Amino acid sequence: ETGVTQSPTHLIKTRGQQVTLRCSSQSGHNTVSWYQQALGQGPQFIFQYYREEENGRGNFPPRFSGLQFPNYSSELNVNALELDDSALYLCASSFRTGHYEQYFGPGTRLTVT
Amino acid sequence: QKEVEQNSGPLSVPEGAIASLNCTYSDRGSQSFFWYRQYSGKSPELIMSIYSNGDKEDGRFTAQLNKASQYVSLLIRDSQPSDSATYLCAGGGKLIFGQGTELSVKP
User: Fold this and answer.
1) What would you measure as the largest C-alpha separation in chain A, in angstroms?
2) What is the pLDDT of residues B36-80, one digit of tens each?
3) pLDDT of A99 over the 90 cut
4) How confident is the model at residue A62 (pLDDT cuts 50, 70, 90)?
5) Which of B44, B94, B100 is closest, CB to CB, to A45?
6) Which value, in Å, is the radius of gyration of the alpha carbons in chain B?
7) What element of type H or E holds A15?
8) Which residues of A touch B34 (CB under 8 A)?
9) Which of A9, A82, B17, B85 gives the lowest tally of CB atoms within 10 Å of its CB?
10) Are A85 and A30 in contact (CB under 8 A)?
11) CA distances to A44, A52, B25, B60 from A35, in Å
């Protein structure tokens, strides 16, 4: 059984640029959630995708957007990067939407300079 | 606003002792709660899930849920230095996390 994978591992971008982060869900899972974790804080929910549709969104501006593909993999796009976007971005997959266990990938460390 | 709160610690216990981690939540409608362990520089790892009032045991870990008091706890028996990490409490289908409790187990 393949776990959740994310790419890239690390990324350095300049303020104002755009970034795309990728996630492959665990085998058998059809729901992907994205979280942002700032240093010393708990992860914050960005949004969730189920069957290629956004299924809930946290308190993040529209410049954070996403996609889910038919194979349940997902992308997180962030436009007009700001310094405060520097964080660990975590993808989690679950068997389906609802109160199911979520399993995290290794994360992408984004640094905005 | 839905919230999950934890003591940030650090919590220090000697090797072999019981570590007790606590969490409170504000959303009475939450049906599921999870404990994640996060080592420094790594992603969260699910260690326990609990959905019903009472205790749930898995090896050295016991999760406790009291919905009336809106309280979740995690007990780690026979604590080992390898248990030293940040423990994150989370609730709901779209996980709401506490800020984490840093646990240090001293040999």
Assistant:
1) 39
2) 999 999 999 999 999 999 999 999 999 999 999 999 999 999 999
3) no
4) very high
5) B94
6) 13
7) none
8) 101-102
9) A9
10) no
11) 5, 18, 19, 29
DSSP structural state of residue A52: T
What is the spatial distance between Cα A48 and Cα A90, in angstroms, rounded to a whole number? 12
Q: Is A106 near chain B, with CB under 8 Å?
A: yes
Q: How far apart are CA B39 and CA B31, in angstroms?
A: 27
Asked if residue B14 has a cis previous peptide bond (ω within 30° of 0), the answer is no
Two tokens, residue B94:
């779209």
For residue B36, the SS3 value is strand
Which of A7, A99, A108 to mutate to probe the B interface, most B CBs <10 Å?
Answer: A99
Q: What is the rounded average pLDDT of the residues A83-95?
A: 97
User: What one-character DSSP code corresponds to residue B27?
Assistant: -
Residue indicated by tokens 């399993």: A103
Burial per residue of A25-45, b for 16 or more beta-carbon CB atoms within 10 angstroms, e otherwise: bbeebbbbbbbbbeeeebbbb
CB contact set of A2 (below 8 Å; sequence gap of 6+):
A24, A26, A27
For A7-48, the pLDDT digits (tens) are 999 999 999 999 999 999 999 999 999 999 999 999 999 999
- The answer to whether B62 touches B56, Cβ cutoff 8 Å, is yes
